[in-house]
Design a protein that fits this description.
The complex is a heterodimer of chains A (about 300) and B (about 130). Chain A has about 300 residues and is α/β, with parallel strands linked by helices. Chain A folds into 2 domains: about 55 residues, Helix Hairpins (Orthogonal Bundle), CATH 1.10.287.80; about 220 residues, 3-Layer(aba) Sandwich (Pyruvate Kinase, Chain: A, domain 1). Helix content of chain A is about 65%, strand content about 15%. Chain A is elongated. Chain B has about 130 residues and is an alpha+beta fold. Chain B has 2 helices and 10 strands. In chain B, helix 1 runs antiparallel to helix 2. Classes of the chains: A alpha/beta (about 300), B alpha+beta (about 130). The interface between A and B is medium-sized, with 30 and 26 residues.
């Protein structure tokens, strides 16, 4: 039977742990709000880029010129997966979901490609890849918390350089898409070659173009070659924002559960403590009573 | 008929308003847009955007991006946009000097050459816009 003192110290330590998890939960909740806001505010830009691209492409189609090199479909031999994880832990299955999916991609798809390699964003992904010996080309760490669009540009330019030099034929991005504060959806999308705009966007663009064809400044090619890399940046930017919002959501949920569990544990320990105390009192009483009996 | 001006950045929709005239820093030189302008899709370089509504006018410092004019809609898609009165002139000039110094010592085959040049251009746009407010 545990002594009174040992139970008391345990209660104390669980209680201080609960304070920490509670604080982490609240911090995550406030960060989540900001991250969620950023996701929403990035949408108009994403829409606008998509629309402009669809427009330029539909005007190009009429003249039948060659597409931009980043649309080029090659036989996919060398493939790269950009995995987005967080820099910090304590966020439930947020990171392990991404990493497990990445690992599964290797086991399932390694027969279809000559080589599969990774680029990781976030410390957790980097550490995992190092430990598991995944083939990683590049890692970015410490980006979250102060995301800037220039980071997305940098990543995009790096991927474009890899793609253009033939180092890689196909690039995917794997990240947690933000659904709600309590749910994230693991998403994998193709970044390169760039997936042409959907039929719907194309139709809208085409009808707009018929109404008023654009003049291009300096030229259609220049607009296209400036626009296409930014479309890629925008996709990476979106993945970064979604992942950050998901991370805070996941941490909030995980820490909420931890706080609740700690509360239950404190309840159980308190019960145990009271029982032990009662047993001690009863024992003492019995001793007194039997001592008094013996004196009679 | 007024123009519908929209400035969109990856961070936010920076501005959405009606105005009478817009001047944009096109890649081939600045150009003005008045109601009834023909449809155009232009690459923008870092520079100053000028807009006028009635007798009231504002200037914005833009990063590089794109502009689309369609009917009476002007959509400006840039990586950053700051209104003149939000820019700290002293800070902008200091940044410009720093970037220029760094850029001046770079060789043209440096992998960061283009990026640095873009930064110099942006800082120059900020300093210019702030000095005119």
């Amino acid at each position: 039977m545990a002594t009174l003192r040992s139970i008391r110290t345990r209660i104390k330590s669980v209680r201080s742990m609960q304070k920490i998890t509670k604080a982490m939960k609240m911090v995550a909740a406030s960060k989540l709000r900001r991250a969620q806001d950023a996701v929403v505010r990035a949408r108009p830009y994403a829409h606008a880029i998509e629309e402009m691209l669809a427009q330029v492409l539909s005007e190009r189609d009429e003249s039948g010129e060659a597409a931009h090199p980043l649309f080029e479909q090659r036989k996919a031999k060398k493939v790269e997966v950009v995995m987005l994880t967080s820099d910090r832990g304590s966020c439930g299955s947020f990171n392990s979901n991404v990493l497990r999916r990445g690992q599964r991609f290797v086991t399932e798809e390694s027969g279809n490609y000559e080589s599969i390699r990774f680029a990781t964003i976030g410390r957790r992904g980097r550490d995992y890849a190092k430990k598991r010996g995944l083939n990683t080309r590049k890692d970015y760490a410490g980006l979250f918390g102060k995301l800037k669009f220039s980071m997305a540009n940098e990543i995009a330019n790096d991927l474009i350089a890899q793609f253009e030099s033939g180092e890689v034929d196909q690039v995917f991005v794997l990240f947690n898409e933000f659904k709600s504060a309590i749910s994230q959806k693991l998403t994998m999308v193709q970044l390169l070659p760039i997936v042409p705009p959907t039929a719907k966007a194309k139709a809208v663009a085409e009808s707009a173009v018929k109404l008023a064809p654009h003049i291009f400044e300096p030229s259609r090619e220049d607009v296209l070659s400036a626009l296409v890399p930014r479309q890629l940046s925008m996709q990476i930017w979106r993945a970064l924002l979604e992942s950050e919002a998901s991370e805070h959501g996941a941490r909030m949920t995980a820490m909420g559960a931890a706080t609740k569990n700690a509360g239950e544990m404190i309840g159980r320990l308190t019960l145990q403590y009271n029982r032990a105390r009662q047993a001690a009192i009863t024992k003492e009483l019995m001793e007194i009573v039997s001592g008094a009996e013996a004196l009679k | 008929m007024a123009l519908q001006l929209e400035i969109v950045t990856p961070m936010q929709r920076a501005l959405s308003t009606e105005c009478d005239e817009v001047r944009l820093p096109g890649a081939e030189g600045s150009f003005g847009v008045l109601p009834g302008h023909t449809s155009i899709l232009s690459v923008l370089k870092a520079g100053a955007l000028f807009m006028r509504t009635g007798s009231e006018s504002h200037t914005y410092a833009l990063g590089e991006g794109f502009a689309e004019v369609s009917g009476d809609h002007v959509r400006v898609l840039v990586e950053e946009a700051q209104r003149a009165d939000e820019i700290d002139l002293a800070l902008a000039q200091k940044q410009l000097a720093e970037h220029q110094a760094k850029f001046g010592s770079m060789k043209s085959d440096d992998p960061d050459y283009d990026r640095m040049r873009a930064q110099v251009e942006r800082a120059a746009a900020r300093a210019l816009v702030a000095s005119k407010k």
